[in-house]
């Protein structure tokens, strides 16, 4: 079995009270938790990581935050989460998976408590900051809106953000109910660029992650014959 050794310090330990949630309806109840943060020799650094680790996070995407005590078995811990200082969740699972919205922006920290001794805890992790942006809209452009005789036009799709990391592009044609384009309909030059040799209305959107998170559709481009 494991033996846990706690150091004795000159400073008196400090009790901490948390409430979840902090806002209740009239006649409702709220649960208060009180514990003492202690300095434990086995308490290694607590680290929060994010997956997927996109440079930018957009409203509606699903992410996972993972809380880990470096060098210790995770089965020993209960995990408590705070966003910008407010209690949000407590679980025996180290992963916190959720769909983010702009209201979820903030600094996330986690704390690990021993399952068999809830009064003994690690220190809070360093914060990981989520800045959730509004769902983006794909941008579509064409090198020409008129087909040359016997030729084609090139369409380019992009996501207007400071980083395009992770985006794949999906192509459509038609007006009221756009249908996906296939390799029979267009020549796919690269990720985000195709050529077409017939007239019509064309759209695109970006997607990334698993399950795929899609941007808004672009405005359409109408290609005509010259």
UniProtKB/TrEMBL annotation:
InterPro entries (UniProt xref): Ig-like_dom (IPR007110), Ig-like_dom_sf (IPR036179), Ig-like_fold (IPR013783), Ig_Fc_receptor (IPR050488), Ig_sub (IPR003599)
KW Transferase (keyword) present: no
Transmembrane parts of this sequence: none
Top-level taxonomic group: Eukaryota
Every Ig-like domain range: 60-110, 136-205
Keywords for the protein's UniProt record, in alphabetical order: Disulfide bond, Signal
SMART domains: IG
A Pfam family it matches: Ig_2
Protein name in the entry: Ig-like domain-containing protein
UniProt source species: Ameca splendens
